[in-house]
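Figure S4 source data
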Amino acid sequence: MRFVAVKLLRSAVTMWLVITFVFVVLRISGDPTDILLPDDVAQEVREFYRVKWGLDQSLWQQYLAYWKALSTGDFGVSLRAGLPAWDMVMERAPKTLLLGLCGLAMALFIGIPLGVIAAQYQGSALDRGVMSFAVFGFSMPNFFLGIILILVFSLHLRWLPSSGSGTLAHLVMPAFTLGTAFAAQIARFTRSAMIDVSSRAYMRTARSKGAGPLRRVVSHAFPNAVVPIVTIIGLKVGELIGGAVVVETVFAWPGLGRLVTIAVANRDLALVQAILILIAATMILTNLIVDLMYGWLDPRVRDARNAAGHRREARA
């Protein structure tokens, strides 16, 4: 319970810091009326909208009012569309969630097997080929890979649609583009983790008992190598979400990526805040789940942290 309580407290503090940072940065970045209203509008009209949107108050007053609204589930109204910001976000969120999950699934489906195979054939041509793919996938920018895929599979071969989200075929290229870099990183970490555990004493014991290569990998090596793999998956989810902004723009995918681009360009405060809060909450929740899984998969971590807490209390 101590382990879980500490993680929950850290997540709550992180969420508060994110909301505060986003609020302050958006307020000091400029006056939304400069973007949303014509340049020749009368000053009285500009002041009317500043009062209507609460921009005439001090930064501290706006901050307190925003937290009071958040406590009731009110994320504000889009300055341009005049609609509840949270409703606009929830309308687009399923598309981004679908794209992110498909990209993650593709990355795991490609990256983990490649990493395991490369570790089993360490130093061979197969190993060098997998690592070459990892370097290529990690170095290739998302937007460039997306454009190449559109040129080949949409314009030249005419196999897949270049934009939109109407069918499953629309999802193939965006998910592949989003998952390629992640798959390359997972392959590298899986290979390193598998090589590390292969030299452990329990692997030599399994070999001496006559366990075959497949059984040693499936029953002994991979279960012990999965802990660092789970950790890196949690850390990279944020990059996956951030990469979705670029991918959605390239493929005209109607998700949060395109919405946040439009909202930032229009300096739509409530809408930008709602999107970033959702993204931050997703990342924090994912990392919390990974931390709890880490403690569950490797009890030594949980026990060591609890023991450290008991020692601090004893010294106090």
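Figure S5 source data
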Amino acid sequence: MKPPALRNPFAAKPLPEQPDIEAAALRSDRFRLEREGEWRRLERIVSRMERGRIRGLPDEDIADLPVLYRQAASSLAVARETSLDAATLAFLEDLVERAWYQVYGPRNGLFRWLGGFFRGGWSRAVRAIWLDIVLAFAAMAAGVAAGWLLVARNVEWYFTLVPGAMAGGRVPGASRADLAETLGVADSAGGLSAFAAYLFYNNASVCILAFALGFAFGVPTLLLLIYNMAMLGAMAWLFNSVGLLPEFMAWLSVHGTTEFAAILLAGAAGVHVGRNMAFPGEASILAATAQAGRRAALVMLGCVFMLIVAAILEAFPRQLAGFETRVLIGVFMLIAWVALFALVGRRGSAETAS
């Protein structure tokens, strides 16, 4: 019996059989010819929809669009798996991507979406979180009262509640004339644009933080609202102590009715998300949070617009207008915001367009 032949580990391995190029090409052609009619029909439908001519499409094409899209997607998966020719693969990838946008993509453009947002989408989202607005408003009112009472009991609290950079010359011990000067009318608008940019950044930071903290079940958001409004209460006490409370309120109302409304809505949006996480009801926590997050995101988008308006009012009309004009602007803005949120979009659906 002959011993088994030893295998040389260094011997070259036999090359695998070369693929039958002609057979592969024939397979690719047969695959394309069997389905090309459906692809071309889908391409014609998608092209007409991309040109905005959807009204001219037959009902049959509209009804068959999802089916044709799924068939093209299935063909693309087969083409990738079997390594069909590059031209067929590239055509299918482009066609499936275009068809996806027509089947599942957003139906409205940016400007149409913004139109729907301002015509009722934003207002409906605000009305949907009314309970959270009540909670946020209660926290803000408590903050004003706490700031007033703390400083009235011990004036040292003023320096704790009001940062030095924000206080400026508005500090306890300042004379009535000095405090009145901080509320005076500027001679011109020079340099106020930079002031407006700073104020927008500061207020936007408060709003974003109030919203972000809502994910901790809303409790930090309420505490932040209390702290920020305690600062207002402390300053109100200071001006009241020298008999300038009406002038201070007029000075504040120009932008305050817009700015504090934005902070209120941002805080309410954060509380809304946190409250739905803590009490999701019959839905899962994830589903309840996702739904609340979409609604709160619409409210926050509107807050950005409000902060832009508040920064402009704070830097220009407030600095250049007198007492009566400040009061009129503040009251007008308050009525405008309340009317927007209470009346606009009443006939629409309860959910805003997303």
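Residues 111-343 form one domain. The two ends are 83 Å apart (CA to CA).
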